[in-house]
Amino acid sequence: MLVVNRTRGTLMGVDVARADSVRARMRGLYAYQHLMLGDGLWLVPCNNIQTIGMKHVIDVVFLDRDNRVVRIYQRLRPGRFTWWIRRAHSALELPEGAVRSSETQVGDLLDFAEASGAPVASEESRQAGEA
Protein backbone atom coordinates (compact mmCIF):
# COMPACT_ATOMS: atom_id res chain seq x y z
CA MET A 1 0.00 0.00 0.00
CA LEU A 2 1.17 3.54 -0.72
CA VAL A 3 1.13 6.19 2.00
CA VAL A 4 1.20 9.83 0.95
CA ASN A 5 1.32 12.90 3.15
CA ARG A 6 -1.37 14.90 1.38
CA THR A 7 -0.59 18.09 3.34
CA ARG A 8 3.09 18.16 2.30
CA GLY A 9 2.82 16.29 -1.00
CA THR A 10 5.45 13.77 0.11
CA LEU A 11 5.65 9.98 0.01
CA MET A 12 5.93 8.13 3.33
CA GLY A 13 5.86 4.54 2.16
CA VAL A 14 5.44 2.40 -0.95
CA ASP A 15 5.23 -1.08 0.60
CA VAL A 16 3.14 -0.58 3.73
CA ALA A 17 1.09 -3.53 5.01
CA ARG A 18 -2.16 -3.13 6.92
CA ALA A 19 -2.45 -5.06 10.20
CA ASP A 20 -6.09 -5.05 11.22
CA SER A 21 -6.40 -8.37 13.05
CA VAL A 22 -5.25 -9.02 16.61
CA ARG A 23 -2.68 -11.53 15.39
CA ALA A 24 -1.26 -9.22 12.71
CA ARG A 25 -1.03 -6.29 15.15
CA MET A 26 0.73 -8.46 17.77
CA ARG A 27 3.24 -9.64 15.17
CA GLY A 28 3.88 -6.08 14.02
CA LEU A 29 7.29 -5.41 12.51
CA TYR A 30 8.90 -8.36 14.32
CA ALA A 31 8.71 -10.39 11.10
CA TYR A 32 10.86 -7.89 9.18
CA GLN A 33 14.52 -8.95 9.09
CA HIS A 34 15.46 -5.81 7.17
CA LEU A 35 13.42 -2.63 7.31
CA MET A 36 14.02 -0.43 4.28
CA LEU A 37 12.87 3.13 3.63
CA GLY A 38 9.49 2.69 1.95
CA ASP A 39 8.46 -0.31 4.10
CA GLY A 40 6.02 -0.02 6.96
CA LEU A 41 3.05 -1.33 8.86
CA TRP A 42 -0.30 0.39 9.48
CA LEU A 43 -1.82 -0.92 12.74
CA VAL A 44 -5.61 -0.50 12.83
CA PRO A 45 -6.90 0.05 15.49
CA CYS A 46 -3.97 1.11 17.66
CA ASN A 47 -3.38 3.83 20.24
CA ASN A 48 -0.04 2.72 21.74
CA ILE A 49 2.87 0.46 20.80
CA GLN A 50 5.89 -1.25 22.31
CA THR A 51 9.20 -2.19 20.72
CA ILE A 52 10.36 -4.83 23.19
CA GLY A 53 12.27 -7.49 21.26
CA MET A 54 12.43 -5.50 18.03
CA LYS A 55 15.66 -5.18 16.08
CA HIS A 56 15.05 -1.82 14.44
CA VAL A 57 14.86 1.83 15.44
CA ILE A 58 11.56 3.06 14.00
CA ASP A 59 9.45 6.15 13.47
CA VAL A 60 5.83 5.94 14.61
CA VAL A 61 3.00 8.17 13.44
CA PHE A 62 -0.31 8.02 15.32
CA LEU A 63 -3.43 8.95 13.35
CA ASP A 64 -7.01 9.81 14.23
CA ARG A 65 -10.03 8.28 12.46
CA ASP A 66 -9.64 10.73 9.56
CA ASN A 67 -5.94 9.78 9.10
CA ARG A 68 -4.75 13.10 10.50
CA VAL A 69 -1.46 12.94 12.42
CA VAL A 70 -1.99 13.38 16.18
CA ARG A 71 1.42 12.30 17.53
CA ILE A 72 4.87 11.44 16.16
CA TYR A 73 7.71 9.45 17.70
CA GLN A 74 10.98 9.64 15.77
CA ARG A 75 13.84 7.21 16.38
CA LEU A 76 11.94 4.97 18.83
CA ARG A 77 14.56 2.44 19.94
CA PRO A 78 13.98 -1.26 20.70
CA GLY A 79 12.81 -1.99 24.23
CA ARG A 80 10.60 1.13 24.48
CA PHE A 81 6.87 1.77 24.62
CA THR A 82 4.55 4.67 24.05
CA TRP A 83 1.81 5.72 26.39
CA TRP A 84 -1.80 5.59 25.28
CA ILE A 85 -2.47 8.35 22.75
CA ARG A 86 -5.97 9.65 23.50
CA ARG A 87 -7.08 10.70 19.99
CA ALA A 88 -5.22 7.95 18.12
CA HIS A 89 -7.13 5.37 16.16
CA SER A 90 -4.22 3.83 14.24
CA ALA A 91 -0.42 3.84 14.15
CA LEU A 92 1.95 3.83 11.21
CA GLU A 93 5.30 2.15 11.97
CA LEU A 94 8.02 3.19 9.53
CA PRO A 95 11.79 2.86 9.21
CA GLU A 96 13.91 5.42 11.01
CA GLY A 97 14.10 8.62 8.95
CA ALA A 98 10.76 8.25 7.15
CA VAL A 99 9.14 11.06 9.15
CA ARG A 100 12.06 13.39 8.60
CA SER A 101 12.35 12.67 4.87
CA SER A 102 8.60 13.21 4.33
CA GLU A 103 8.61 16.36 6.52
CA THR A 104 5.53 15.00 8.32
CA GLN A 105 4.18 17.05 11.24
CA VAL A 106 1.29 16.83 13.69
CA GLY A 107 -1.87 17.95 11.93
CA ASP A 108 -0.88 16.62 8.49
CA LEU A 109 -3.39 14.49 6.58
CA LEU A 110 -2.26 11.12 5.19
CA ASP A 111 -3.73 9.18 2.27
CA PHE A 112 -3.52 5.40 1.90
CA ALA A 113 -3.91 3.70 -1.49
CA GLU A 114 -3.67 0.10 -2.62
CA ALA A 115 -0.91 -0.74 -5.09
CA SER A 116 -3.60 -0.62 -7.80
CA GLY A 117 -4.08 3.06 -6.98
CA ALA A 118 -7.50 2.58 -5.34
CA PRO A 119 -7.83 4.73 -2.21
CA VAL A 120 -8.25 3.04 1.16
CA ALA A 121 -11.22 4.50 3.03
CA SER A 122 -10.74 6.10 6.42
CA GLU A 123 -12.66 4.59 9.34
CA GLU A 124 -15.22 7.40 9.32
CA SER A 125 -15.97 7.12 5.59
CA ARG A 126 -16.22 3.32 5.95
CA GLN A 127 -18.79 3.69 8.75
CA ALA A 128 -20.79 6.23 6.73
CA GLY A 129 -20.93 3.76 3.83
CA GLU A 130 -22.34 1.05 6.10
CA ALA A 131 -25.15 3.29 7.41
List the helices and strands and how they pair.
Layout (H helix, E strand, L loop, with lengths): L1 E4 L4 E4 L1 E5 L2 H6 L11 E5 L14 E6 L5 E8 L13 E6 L2 H5 L7 E4 L9 H8 L1
Parallel strand pairs: 3-4
Antiparallel strand pairs: 1-2, 1-8, 4-7, 5-6, 5-7
Any overview of this molecule?
There is one protein chain. The protein is of the alpha+beta class and 131 residues long. The protein has one domain: Protein of unknown function DUF192 (Jelly Rolls, Sandwich), CATH 2.60.120. The chain has three helices and eight strands, in the order E-E-E-H-E-E-E-E-H-E-H. It has helices at 22-27, 98-102, 123-130; strands spanning 2-5, 10-13, 15-19, 39-43, 58-63, 69-76, 90-95, 110-113. The strands form two sheets. The chain has a five-stranded mixed β-sheet with strand order 3-4-7-5-6. A three-stranded antiparallel β-sheet has the order 2-1-8. It is globular, with a radius of gyration of 14 Å.
How many distinct helices?
3
Low-confidence stretches: none
The CATH superfamily appears as Protein of unknown function DUF192
The string of secondary-structure elements, in order, is EEEHEEEEHEH
Helix content: 10-25%
End-to-end distance = 26 Å
Number of strands: 8
* CATH topology (fold) name: Jelly Rolls
How many domain units? 1
**Major β-sheet annotation:** 5 strands, mixed
Rg on CA atoms, Å: 14 Å
- Please state how the strands of the largest beta sheet are arranged side by side: 3-4-7-5-6
The top-level CATH class is Mainly Beta
What proportion strand?
A: 25-35%
What average pLDDT do the residues reach?
86
What's the shape? globular
CATH 2nd-level architecture: Sandwich
Output the structural class: alpha+beta
